[in-house]
Amino acid sequence: MASADPATRLAELQRxxxxxxxxxxxxxxxxxxxxxxxxxxxxxxxxxxxxYHEDRLGEPFVGQAGxxxxxxxxxxxxxxxxxxxxxxxKCRPPNNRDPQTAEIEKxxxxxEQQIGLISPAIVCTLGNFSTRLLSGQPHGISRVxxxxxxxxxxxxxxxPVYHPAAALYTPANLxxxxxxxxxxxxxxxxxxxxxxxxxxxxxxxxxxxxxVAVESTDGDAAAGGDGTGTxxxxxxxxxxxxxxxx
Length: 246
Fold this sequence. Notes:
six-stranded mixed beta sheet; Uracil-DNA Glycosylase, subunit E; alpha/beta; 6 strands
């Protein structure tokens, strides 16, 4: 019988992920990269897939993008131990290519269980793949970043932002990412206050974000990731970070 304790169950899941052979990615991995952080985190980050350094060390976000994430966390008074960090895929794709649909479908159960066990107030999605998977919408990150939205079938709020590697390889995105992180601190505080002092109950459900609702499929991926036609190299590789980040 599975343990009811989130930390214990996460450790069990981590062992399951390490032994997983559900898709061909297991053939080339050095380590599976399950996730790291507090099992009781109010804030969870979800990226795309492990890169070179992550595969070697078995930890998420340990390359240059991870260093930037640490700085962004510090800017809002947090550290890694305060949050939980995971990826859509638990194994590194060859040459850091984009995750494939079949791989995401095979691996998504691990992420869904992580979210269910941790039960964060906010899941901050980093880049396209995690945003599209958890929102169930096709919109690219350049259109929806910095806009809180509901996670379907859950009370958890999604907060999409650019992947940190997007800021490393497109410097203009760094300011946007910093601004989105500064708002994240306020969203966390507002969420805490709402739990302490619940708002009066209303009969009508809150309206969906009209701008998100009417957007068509984003064309960022076809443009090379960031809409500029320039795609970054893979996470952890010399001179590069993860693909598909925009």
